[in-house]
Design goal:
single chain, Ferritin, about 0% strand
């Protein structure tokens, strides 16, 4: 998917979370550790909800902001290649899963923060800040829930 505008970036972000959700759910089916299986299913559910929430910004965002080009920035700072789903989550420990998911979310947060820092229009900044804040909040909730599972 070629990302050129904020609208297509939202599509990419939503698709990324959807793909990661499907990957985590598929890996959970083959995970032998019950605790890790529960973690993968929990994270898959949260990622799918996040995908839907991010997609919703297209419905409420202003067209001018959504149609803003971001290709110049993305040429310098490429997007994640995609949520790798090579069954690596099957052999990971719960700690490794948490670390990997946290790293992926940090990269998405940095992307939105960098775009926010470079934007000059209030409507664009508002949209980017809302998506960034949602991503940050959901990532924190995921990590808190995952860490609670670790404490069991």
């Amino acid at each position: 998917m070629k990302v050129e505008s904020l609208r297509s970036l939202l599509d990419w972000t939503s698709g990324y979370h959807r793909h990661l959700s499907n990957c985590l759910a598929d890996c959970a089916k083959h995970q032998l550790d019950d605790r890790c299986q529960m973690l993968l299913n929990y994270l898959a559910d949260k990622e799918m909800k996040l995908a839907i929430a991010v997609q919703g910004f297209k419905d409420v965002g202003e067209d001018k902001a959504l149609n803003t080009w971001c290709i110049e920035h993305l040429d310098r700072h490429p997007l994640l290649a995609g949520a790798a789903c090579d069954d690596a989550f099957i052999s990971m420990t719960t700690t490794e899963v948490i670390t990997e998911i946290e790293n992926q979310h940090q990269q998405i947060l940095l992307l939105y923060q960098n775009l926010y820092d470079r934007s000059q229009t209030p409507k664009i900044q508002e949209l980017l800040a809302q998506v960034r804040d949602l991503e940050k909040s959901e990532a924190q909730q995921m990590m808190q829930g995952a860490n609670r599972l670790e404490d069991l």
